[in-house]
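step: validate -> pass
step: tokenize input -> pass
step: predict -> running
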Amino acid sequence: MPIQAAPARWILETDHTAYVFGLNQAGLLTHCYWGMRLPRPGDYPEPANPVFWAADGAAHFTPHEYPAYGGLSYVDPCLKVTFADGVRDLVLTYVEHELSHAPQPQLTLRLQDTAYPLRISLHYRLHEAYDLIERWAELENLGTEPVLVERAYSAKWTLPPGDDYRLTHLYGRHVDEFHIQREPLTQGLKTLESRRIIPSHHASPWFAVDRGADEDTGKVWFGTLAWSGNWKISAEVTEFASTRLSIGLNDWDFAWKLLPGQPFTTPAALAGFTPHGFGAASRALHDYVRDTLLPHGKTLHKVLYNSWEATLFNVDEASQSALAEIAAEMGVELFVMDDGWFHGRNWDNAGLGDWWPDEVKFPHGLGGLIHKVNRLGMDFGLWVEPEMVNPNSELYRAHPDWIIHWPGRARTESRNQLILNLGRPEVQEYLISVLDRILSENNIAFIKWDMNRNASEPGWVDAPGDPRELWVRYVQGLYRVWETLRQRHPQVIFQSCASGGGRADLGILRLADQVWVSDNTEATCRLDIQEGYSQFLPANTMEAWVTDADKGRVPLEFRFHVSMCGSLGVGGNLLEWSAEERALAAACIQQYKELRPIIQLGDQYRLRSPQQEQFSVVQYMSKDGTEGVLFAFRVHIPDYARVVKLPPVHLRGLEPAWLYRVEGIAGERSGLAWMETGLTLELENMHSKVLRIKRI
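step: predict -> pass
step: emit ->
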């Protein structure tokens, strides 16, 4: 059985790992073990019994599974509340557990306060084949008076005893996302977070912890949060060599008025363990996302063209048709019209909120253009930014109260726009109505959903509960809009964009099939960005364009090869591309279509890091191990000699006993030989290679 429930201990086993916790002699829910699956239940540790110290009680030394703020405990708590009488102390005791086995094995533990009618349900769901555990908490007010919730994390993950751990996380900024940072965890609290109403470009809700691991070897504990709003990760190392990570909703400026009969559920946290390094951790998450999460699963994403760089806001049927004709000749499969198509939209200072075709640019609607694109053999896609509104719009003039704002305060504009309060049901209904109409009246196969500013003045005058619920209700409202549109238009592929990678998380990927990873399309920068993104999200979700951002400095073939490492798109001004450039683009697109199943659905191996080296290599292998593709990039290495010998490249993911041939490399070798002895490439500065790997 994947979940074994003893009288006071629970053993959760996936295909290769185990997670164990139980009740100690003091009745405290205590973490016991997280690591490799062991042969017998008796092999796992028992819950630790209370230990006392002069200044601290037993609770301080207990590796709590889900600690609350209360009693003689000073560890970072998962839960903090204030009861109606002002009491801020929470003492939870175990009540019961419940097991279920479909569709996945699931354990629910119910805890209750010793004096107040507050019940907490801790949920554990196993994803056995991926060696992942999903956790979330549900809060229920069983009384008659409201309870104010001030913190409600999804999970606390406790590591084996010791204080010599290293934390890996992602940081960045707009147009410079997903940098990999590795640093020692020392005594105290290390906090990662977003306070911007989206996960943000500045950090990602993902972590990995290790003790000297690399891409291929070493123990790694890793996790992420399925949430598209404010989040927080707290890594705590106590003075007694206990290391724990909490993950969940950000409690900064957060409160929730918990009413009787209206449970509050935290977002899901997903975590796993592997003894095979960071690469195996990434591949576990990649498989989970592709197999279980994405709306269209393993559907291969089409090569798209986006018109933004070519026309900016100057869109009309003639200009878009001219671009579509060139794109079709190059082999593009999806034509996407970007900003500028809707009512009053001639610049970024007007029109947001008025989601119908501009009467001047498209006097007969979008039908003519879409029909032209379809005749050329391509699907049609559209850019929208529904969460925003320009003060110069019909929507704002009719409903200025729909904006996130403080009464009596100036409404700060960013990019000439304000944010609609998606926590309000009437705002949700408006967006559902106008977007449903666009999708119903037109043959639209793809929506690029953008979100181009962060929150400010987070006020909500007539909020249904505490005004600080805005941060959560906004995201819940966003999910409702997406879910409704997806139910009505299940064939449409949605892409999540927030000025690039500001909303890249497992919460939005329940509803979107792709992420626009960054507004930075310069190829050498994208190598770094794409490596960081791959730490927890797979290549088929990663939209990557070839643009003119680095034209004249980086060869077109190099730019294509970088973008081919994800879901390929083109965004340059095709009207200015030469015949030779278009021919090269057509050849690269054809090559990508042949390799697409391996890249989008195969296993990814990061062989050499572009964030650490000027010579980088990434490999993809089909799931059956019969074929693969190798991308090699040399950015700039000074030529001290006529030929600089690059270090050998050791392949990964091959079957050791099978024979393979690598395109462009002489000879046939066993999989083990390619992995152990490697291969040597010759590359000049700012050049790249794509090599196919095939079993003989």
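step: describe -> The chain is about 20% helix and 30% strand.
step: cleanup -> pass
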